[in-house]
Every structure is written in C-alpha cells, then in structure tokens.
C-alpha cells in the first residue's frame, strides 16, 4: 500500500473530518471533482484492489473493474457527471490479493454549492457478492418459469429481463430494459409510470395490470407485481418482479360482467313490468271489488228484508241461504279488497286512543253467533298489570283478532277457545303486547306451517272444500302486523290444535 499524505490525497484542512470518517467505515470510499476525476480514496480501496495512487487517480481506477463491466461503468459514470444525478451501478471489482472479482454496488452523491452547481462527488463501493449470488440464483430460476421476469436497481432502473421478454415482444432484453415503457399500451403508460414511481418512492410493493405489445403487434393483459429485496439493515438492494399473462382471465371476466349486466338489465325490465302488472292487478281488484260490493249490499239487504216477511217456511229457508251465501261472498270480496290495498301499500295507519276492554268486547261479539252455533266457549285472559288505554290503530288490531278467532271457531268442533293478552317488554311508555289465540281444533301439518302466511295458502284442498275461504286471511294478518312493526307466528301439529300469536308495539295512553 502506498504512503498516503495530504498531497497525494489532495485533501484540504476542512476535509480532515471527512477523511477520518472515510477511513473508519468498512466500504471503499472515494471522492472526485465536478468533472469526475478521482481525488481521494480511503485505505480500504488500496487494501482490496492492491492498486497505488497513480493507478487510481482520474479514470485509471477502472482497471480494477471487470472487462465486461468497464464500458457500462464508464457510460453510467459519465451520464451522472453530465446530469448531476446520483451515480449507482453494480459491477465486479478485482481483489488484488487473489485476482478474483467480487460484485460491488458503487454509489456516488453530488455535492453542490450555494448556486446549485456540482463541486465534488462523494462515493462508496459496497461488497454485494453474497446478495448478487442470491440474485443470480433468482435469475436462473427466472429463466425456468413461464412469466416475464425483471429486476431493477434500488432507484427503479431496470437492469435485467429474462428471455421470455424477448420471446414475447421480439425485442432484445438489454434494449427492452431501456424502452420497456414504449411496449405498453398508450392508454396504460402514464398510470403505470406513476404506480411504479410511487412504489419506488414509498419502498412498497408494486402491483398493477397493464397491456404489453407482443411481436405480433397485439396487446395482451399482464398482472405485474414487484417486491423490494432488502439487506440485513432493511435497505433495498434490488427489485424483483414478474409479469403474468392474465389476458384470458380478463376477457372471461369482461364477458361475465357483460352477461351479468345484460341479465341485470333484463331483470330490471322484468321487474318494472311486474310492478306495472301488479299495479294494474291491484287497480283491477279494487275496481271489481267495489263493483261487486254495491249490488251485493243490495242482495244482502233484500234477503234480510225478505226473511222478515210472512212466507212459507220453505221460502224463508231459501231466503236464509241467500243471505248466508251473499254474506260469504261479501267476506271474500272484502278480503280481496284488503289484500290488494295492502299489496299496493295503500293502507295507512289510523292512530287513535282506544280501550283494550272495548276492543276485546266488540271483537268477541263479532264471533258470538258462530260460537253459539257450534256450542263453543271463548275464554279471555288479560294480564292484570296490563293498562287498558293505548294509542294505536284499534280497527286493524280488531281485524287481526277477529280473523284469528274466526279461524279458531271454524276449525274447532268442541272445547274452549282461549284468547290471552300479555305484556312482553316495556320501554318507557311503550309496551310490546302479545295476543295469543289457542284452539283445540284440527291443527296444521308441519309441511304447511312455513308457508301458512302466504297468500291463498290453506292446509290442503279438503280444507277449502270443507270450510271454505280464500286463504287470504292470514296473509292479510301478517301484512297488517308488519305495517304496525310487529311479529306474527303459529305453533301447531296436525290433530293437536293450534296457537296463533302476534306482538305489536303500543303506546300507553293516559
């Protein structure tokens, strides 16, 4: 190693601290003037290369660089000098003790004066032989996989592409490292450039889809993912990435999306048509119901008057049958009208103060004739702590109760029907009140229970023939309970009676 003094190092007094620092670190350290002529190297350089000062000064230091790397080293160094940008390159430097070449990462920063002009360069060369061997192994692997593989230096400049790039693009890999952005679809270049710069700046994963032009001038979609490789101190020493052809998947996804869109549009059209049909149906049912109700009211009135007149018993019996049949038909018409209104959301709530006792009184009166005829009894059980005055839609609550009680009477031949009212929950002035109707009648099979509250559903065809009805009553009940933000349900087994219940929130009234 040569004798180094202040003259040969060309260091001035203010650089003394820099020299002490340079001699203390394990890397090879060097400085140059603004033109790139080396001025100083630390002892580590001489120890490693075995060169003396005269062999190192100016650009003679490149004699330590591997012959295959000299041209690229000099071009990169010259480009940095001309642009004033950071100099960084991976190249092989000869170790003087045994003549072997080891990979080093050389990096130099420009030192600028107050005017922004470069006055000096400060650089280091770090041994990366082990990391490079790892990278070389990765490159061997890269040549064996079907993806397009690439690597970049820490600054994001591409320094390797596998042969799959050339096979796909028809462009030599070394040239492609410089012009790769030009191979992308024009619509994808700007977004790709921004995404890559963001990944480099943030030192984060690079993940993006873009189109690459093949040697047949056709573009295919590729999913590109790049990962930063770090050293033991967490510093990025390389970027490693792959481009995977996802063109077929993208086309399939686009086709599926198109079909979904077409299907969605078709469903929307069908839905709109169904809504229009439903509106027309509701309007028709309402109109026809009103048209039937008017003459039917006349039939009911006339048959009732006829039954009060003096006439033979046979004629009276016939008038009674006319009245019963007309009354049944009026009930069916009323059910259809209620259902169509509820289905069209044209039934508003009519909130009023009401008495629970009065509601139960008039509700039981509605079925008293049917109870008497079948010799049945109605047992009413009201929880003692339950208030009597509430604020709610009394008419709709009574309609639900009468429907459930009428069904209980209809399907019960003997025994008592029980109506229970109880408090389930309380929040301030609001109570959740449960109404329960229990009968010992014919019951309902388990298969029918899940769909019992759907329109036009009855236990089976024999029920309709034997007991009549449209199958709309329970559906109307459910819609009314839902309108009042409540719940309705049933527990039953065939031959073991039924328990229908509904719960609705009611406000206590003073």
Brief rundown of the structure:
The protein is of the alpha+beta class.
Q: What does this protein look like?
A:
The protein has 510 residues and is of the alpha+beta class. The protein has four domains: 6-127, PAS domain (Beta-Lactamase, 2-Layer Sandwich); 132-245, PAS domain (Beta-Lactamase, 2-Layer Sandwich); 254-343, Signal transduction histidine kinase, dimerisation/phosphotransfer (DHp) domain (Helix Hairpins, Orthogonal Bundle); 352-508, Histidine kinase-like ATPase, C-terminal domain (Heat Shock Protein 90). The protein is 45% helix and 26% strand. Strands 11, 12, 13, 14, 15, 16 and 17 form a seven-stranded mixed sheet that branches. A five-stranded antiparallel sheet has the order 2-1-5-4-3. A hairpin with a 5-residue loop joins β16 (487-492) and β17 (498-508). The model is unreliable at 1-14 (pLDDT under 50).
The helix content, as a percent range, equals 40-55%
The helix count comes to 16
At CATH level 3, the topology of the largest domain is Heat Shock Protein 90
What characteristic shape results from the CA principal axes? rod-shaped
Number of E-state strands: 17
Tell me the Rg in angstroms.
47 Å
CATH architecture of the largest domain: 2-Layer Sandwich
Low-confidence stretches: 1-14
Distance between the termini: 108 Å
Main beta sheet: 7 strands, mixed
Mean pLDDT: 84
| Percent of sequence in beta strands | 25-35%
- The figure for the number of domains is 4
CATH hierarchy class name of the largest domain: Alpha Beta
Structural class label: alpha+beta
CATH superfamily of the largest domain: Histidine kinase-like ATPase, C-terminal domain
């Amino acid at each position: 190693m040569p004798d180094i003094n202040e003259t040969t190092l060309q260091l001035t007094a203010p650089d003394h601290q820099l020299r002490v620092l340079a001699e203390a670190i394990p890397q090879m350290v060097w400085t140059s003037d603004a033109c790139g002529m080396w001025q100083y190297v630390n002892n580590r350089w001489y120890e490693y290369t075995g060169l003396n000062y005269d062999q190192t000064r100016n650009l003679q230091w490149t004699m330590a660089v591997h012959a295959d790397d000299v041209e690229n080293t000099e071009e990169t160094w010259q480009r940095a000098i001309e642009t004033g940008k950071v100099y960084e390159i991976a190249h092989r430097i000869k170790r003087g003790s045994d003549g072997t070449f080891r990979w080093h990462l050389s990096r130099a920063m420009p030192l600028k004066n107050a005017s922004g002009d470069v006055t000096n360069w400060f650089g280091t060369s770090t041994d990366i032989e082990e990391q490079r061997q790892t990278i070389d192994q990765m490159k061997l692997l890269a040549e064996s996989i079907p993806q397009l593989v690439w690597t970049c230096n820490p600054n994001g400049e591409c320094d390797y592409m596998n042969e799959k790039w050339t096979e796909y693009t028809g462009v030599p890999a070394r040239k492609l490292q410089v012009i790769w952005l030009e191979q992308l679809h024009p619509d994808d270049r700007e977004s790709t450039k921004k995404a890559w710069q963001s990944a480099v700046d943030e030192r984060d994963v690079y993940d993006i889809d873009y189109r690459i032009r093949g040697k047949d001038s056709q573009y295919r979609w590729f999913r590109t993912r790049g990962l930063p490789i770090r050293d033991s101190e967490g510093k990025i020493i390389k970027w490693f990435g792959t481009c995977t052809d996802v063109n077929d998947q993208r086309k399939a996804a686009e086709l599926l999306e198109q079909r979904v869109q077409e299907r969605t549009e078709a469903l929307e059209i069908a839905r709109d048509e169904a809504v229009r049909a439903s509106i027309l149906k509701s309007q028709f049912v309402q109109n026809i119901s009103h048209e039937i109700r008017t003459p039917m009211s006349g039939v009911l009135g006339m048959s009732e008057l006829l039954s009060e007149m003096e006439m033979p018993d046979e004629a009276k019996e016939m008038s009674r049958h006319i009245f019963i049949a007309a009354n049944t038909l009026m009930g069916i018409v009323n059910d259809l009208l209620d259902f169509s209104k509820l289905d069209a959301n044209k039934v508003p709530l009519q909130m009023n103060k009401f008495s629970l006792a009065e509601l139960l009184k008039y509700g039981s009166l509605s079925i008293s004739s049917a109870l008497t005829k079948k010799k049945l009894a109605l047992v009413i059980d009201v929880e003692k702590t339950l208030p009597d005055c509430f604020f709610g839609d009394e008419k709709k609550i009574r309609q639900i109760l009468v429907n459930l009680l009428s069904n209980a009477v209809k399907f019960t031949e003997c025994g008592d029907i029980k109506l229970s009212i109880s408090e389930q929950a309380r929040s301030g002035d609001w109570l959740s009140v449960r109404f329960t109707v229990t009968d010992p009648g014919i019951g309902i099979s388990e298969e029918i229970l899940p769909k019992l509250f759907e329109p036009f559903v009855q236990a089976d065809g024999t029920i309709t023939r034997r007991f009549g009805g449209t199958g709309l009553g329970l559906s109307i009940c459910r819609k009314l309970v839902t309108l009042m933000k409540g719940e309705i349900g049933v527990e039953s087994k065939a031959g073991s009676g039924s328990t229908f219940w509904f719960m609705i929130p009611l406000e206590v009234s003073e």
